[in-house]
Write a structure and sequence with these properties.
With 513 residues, the chain is an alpha/beta fold. 44% of the residues lie in helices and 20% in strands.
């Protein structure tokens, strides 16, 4: 009996051990079969607006910063009608050179023309609902003002670029070429092995319609009626569903959040455009207008004597256009640049073009912009104790606003008070302020007396339009007078002639005799 009992206990122990071990094995197998989905990190780069050098500069910088974060994906969110082909080529080459992170294009609204070229440069392509991609024929404005597709010299390297991207990233090569070639008609052929089961297809072939036309009758019967994918004379432009059916898009999503969920993106960051890139983009958008106005101002300056306001305005406008080419590299230096520009404009107003107020106003605007750009909002104290709970989120900003206004008021009051009460107390020679009164002040010029209309003389200073001229009096003597022109700029040393004397003002013009 004891032996049977021991035998029973041994068998029970063995069965329990075997069951526990089997359970462990099964659990381990389940864990191996259903692994936990690994979370991914992505860096987002938005490419919106015209494709131009400013977008390329931003994209190159953004890719460099993204690679430093070692993400799994670099996602390019694309929304553009295209733009300059040279900038698109540079941008595509930069994307293709990315090593490590997988490049993904997500079409937000449209990827047309150069935008489709950028999208195919990425390893994978996804699209949001109701978006489009395609149509990359290079366009120029014809002699009659209508847009025209450029010749084969430009189309050939562009087609080669599309083929290269298709071969590298696994997109349909022939359809990619139809993005840029309107003469190319593409058809789809489908062969059926079992005529009794039309749902069972053997293979699908996408070829040019010209190749199908040279097939014999037996081959045409084998393939059946072709389906036209791209008509001759048209360029391939696809919706999100068509792009997925034709093998371009890997999937369509309702929103960016759905896309991130599908790709298991848990950690994400976005690289924003900096101030220099925003300025470069804004200048590029109006560069044509600036050049027209700039050269127009220079033409007016060329037609008028001397060098004056129109010449300076023309040079400034043309300089702004060229400045836009280097603005992305100057980010962080703009406050200093604006400060120097403000001082220069003030000096021009004082010494070169006095009385015009144009350069003075420009100097004030530059100085204010420099102060705003250099001001760090993080340094504004928040006058809200941490222990006090409040639901009014605007309170710290209101106190910060009062702080800024108070600082500005103090900065204004101190110089005024110093100039009125402290600086005059300095000894003679140490103060920039005159201590003489107006009773002893003497003008270096003569008062307006009997000046005959038609009297001639010589301009002693630049008349812009106010200055001084030495006029010949009736008795033959020369006297210095304050004169002004009717807007005309007269250089020093030129002959002038009195045109009128009104209310104590002597109006002169250029004496062309």
């Amino acid at each position: 009996m004891k032996l049977l009992t021991k035998l029973f206990l041994f068998l029970a122990f063995l069965a329990a051990f075997t069951f526990a071990d089997t359970t462990t094995i099964v659990d381990s197998a389940k864990t191996a079969i259903v692994p936990e989905l690994k979370k991914k990190q992505a860096v987002w780069i938005k490419l919106e607006g015209d494709v131009d050098p400013a977008m390329y500069e931003f994209c190159a910088r953004a890719i460099g910063e993204a690679i430093e974060k070692s993400p799994d994906y670099i996602v390019f969110e694309i929304n553009t009608f295209g733009g300059r082909l040279d900038a698109a080529f540079d941008l595509v080459d930069t994307i293709m050179a990315v090593k490590g992170p997988e490049t993904i294009a997500l079409v937000k609204k449209k990827a047309i023309s150069a935008g489709s070229l950028i999208a195919l440069a990425c390893k994978r392509l996804y699209m949001l609902e109701a978006t489009t991609i395609g149509d990359c024929a290079p366009i120029v404005q014809g002699s009659n003002g209508t847009p025209e597709i450029v010749g084969e010299k430009i189309q050939s390297p562009l087609r080669a670029k599309f083929r290269n991207l298709a071969q590298r990233n696994g997109y349909p090569e022939l359809l990619a070429s139809s993005f840029v070639t309107p003469e190319l008609e593409v058809i789809e052929l489908t062969a059926t092995l079992d005529k009794g089961k039309p749902t069972q297809r053997d293979t699908t072939l996408i070829i040019e319609s010209k190749k199908f036309a040279v097939l014999d009758s037996a081959e045409k019967k084998f393939w059946g009626s072709p389906k036209i994918l791209v008509k001759e004379g048209e360029l391939l432009t696809m919706t999100d569903q068509e792009a997925e059916e034709l093998g371009f898009s890997r999937g369509t999503f309702k929103s960016r959040e759905d896309f991130e969920t599908k790709l298991a993106i848990e950690r994400k960051s976005e690289i924003e455009t900096n101030t220099g890139e925003k300025i470069a983009s804004a200048i590029a958008a109006i560069s044509g207008l600036l050049l027209i106005l700039g050269f127009g101002a220079l033409y007016i300056e060329f037609k008028t004597p001397g060098f004056g306001m129109f010449g300076i305005i023309g040079l400034i406008l043309i300089g702004i256009v060229f400045f836009g080419q280097f603005a992305p590299q100057l980010d962080g230096y703009f406050p200093a640049i604006l400060l120097v520009a403000g001082v220069v404009l003030f000096l021009v107003e004082i010494f070169v073009m006095p009385g015009t107020f144009l350069f003075g106003i420009g100097g004030i605007i530059c100085l204010i912009a420099a102060l705003i750009m250099s001001f760090d909002t993080a340094n504004i104290p928040e006058y809200v104790p941490e222990a006090v709970e409040t639901t009014f989120d605007a309170t710290p900003w209101l106190f910060g606003l009062f702080f800024v206004i108070g600082s500005a008021a103090i900065a204004l009051i101190i110089p005024i008070a110093a100039s009125k009460y402290l600086i005059p107390l300095l000894p003679e020679g140490w103060t920039p302020m005159l201590k003489t009164d107006m009773e002893t002040a003497v003008s270096p010029t003569e008062a307006v007396q009997e000046i005959a209309i038609g009297a001639v003389g010589i301009a002693k200073t630049f008349l812009r339009p106010v200055g001084q001229a030495s006029l010949t009096m009736p008795d033959g003597t020369n006297k210095l007078f304050d004169v002004q022109t009717h807007g005309e700029i007269i250089e020093a040393g030129q002959k002038v002639k009195v045109e009128s004397v009104q209310e104590g003002h002597i109006w002169v013009g250029l004496d062309e005799r």
